[in-house]
Design brief:
Length: about 190
């Protein structure tokens, strides 16, 4: 399979997911600030999920740009990642509608965790295909940021059953953590 086809398919899925996620937002009933406040939790969840989808799209773009060859394992790993990302609209709506409920908050975190694992698998397969001495492998290094993110998601999931707001804060913190671009990967792609 050509790399461009995988990129185009993935970009299409990202665009659809963002569109579906925003369609879950409903206008408040009324014109007062209190009416607007009633949809605030769902809106904040939407913003967080939009950030995550944007972060994954950006990193996915750089990862595939660095990839020279695609094989079946990479295709399936990519589909695995897209599966977990496709659950974002559902968990965004559920956690937003029930913003202080433990189970939706924990499930939101579980989807974040499983998406991070799927991204790690995809990244690992691409690095294996490129070679351990490739510029991509050097740029990603030990991937402390990715591993720390997965650890934080996994830690926040049980916390959600006792203090959902702490788990939500961890999810937001990890998103902010990823908003800072990784200059090493951008540099490696320039040199490639």
């Amino acid at each position: 399979m050509e790399k461009g086809r995988l990129e185009a398919f993935s970009d299409g899925v990202f665009a659809i997911l963002i569109t579906i996620t925003v369609l879950e937002l409903k206008a408040p009933h009324g014109v007062s600030l209190s009416a607007l406040a009633s949809v605030l939790p769902l809106f904040l969840n939407y913003v967080l999920s939009f950030l995550y989808l944007g972060i994954y799209w950006n990193n996915h773009h750089h990862l595939l740009k660095a990839c020279r060859r695609i094989h079946g394992g990479i295709m399936w790993a990519n589909l695995h990642l897209l599966f977990w990302l496709s659950l974002f609209p559902f968990v965004t709506d559920w956690a937003g509608e029930n913003h202080s409920a433990p189970l939706p908050t924990a499930i939101y975190g579980a989807v974040l965790f499983l998406a991070s694992v799927a991204y790690f698998v995809l990244q690992s397969l691409i690095i294996t295909e490129q070679g351990c001495d490739s510029k991509l492998a050097a740029a990603i290094g030990a991937d402390r940021k990715g591993k720390l993110s997965s650890l934080l998601y996994a830690s926040a999931i049980p916390v959600a059953f006792f203090q959902p707001w702490i788990a939500q804060a961890v999810y937001a913190l990890v998103a902010l953590f990823w908003l800072v671009p990784d200059r090493r990967l951008a540099q490696a792609l320039k040199e490639a």
